Amino acid sequence: MGAIIRTGGKQYLVNVGDIVDIEKLEGVSGDKVTFEEVLAVFGDKNEITLGDPVIADAKVEGELIDQYKDKKILVFKMKRRTRYRKTQGHRQNLTKVKITKISS
């Protein structure tokens, strides 16, 4: 059984038992989290339930595993012939979540 959820402005395809890296959620390791915005649910026998835009009673439950920062990306800006160069770094805060239950 699988589902498509929306959190942090992004959409994720998840199954029971998956470990997903998503935008930072508040909490510590071991906390339970519930995703209310379920866009689609996939059954075991090729059954698909689509939302308009979300499914009203569907929920995806998970457990927080870890809070961490992603690898650093470099942002480099340059304007030619003016000696303008600017380098910035960014590390995104992420949360690792294990999906425990999908209910529709």
Task: Please provide a written account of the structure.
There is one protein chain. The chain has strands spanning 2-7, 10-15, 19-23, 32-35, 38-42, 48-50, 59-69, 73-79, 84-90, 93-103. Strands 2-1-5-6 form a four-stranded antiparallel sheet, with no helix packed on it. A four-stranded antiparallel sheet has the order 3-10-7-4, with no helix packed on it. It has one domain. It has 104 residues and is mainly beta.
Keyphrases for this structure?
10 strands, 104 residues, elongated, four-stranded antiparallel beta sheet, mainly beta
Give a summary of the structure in a few sentences:
By secondary structure, this protein is mainly β. The protein has no helices and ten strands.
Largest sheet: 4 strands, antiparallel
Q: What is the structural class?
A: mainly beta
* N to C succession of SSEs: EEEEEEEEEE
Radius of gyration: 18 Å
Helix-residue proportion: under 10%
Percent of sequence in beta strands = over 45%
Low-confidence parts lasting 5 or more residues at pLDDT below 50?
A: none
How is the largest sheet built, in terms of strand order? Answer: 2-1-5-6
- How many strand units? 10
Q: How many distinct helices?
A: 0
User: What is the average of the pLDDT values?
Assistant: 95
Shape descriptor: elongated
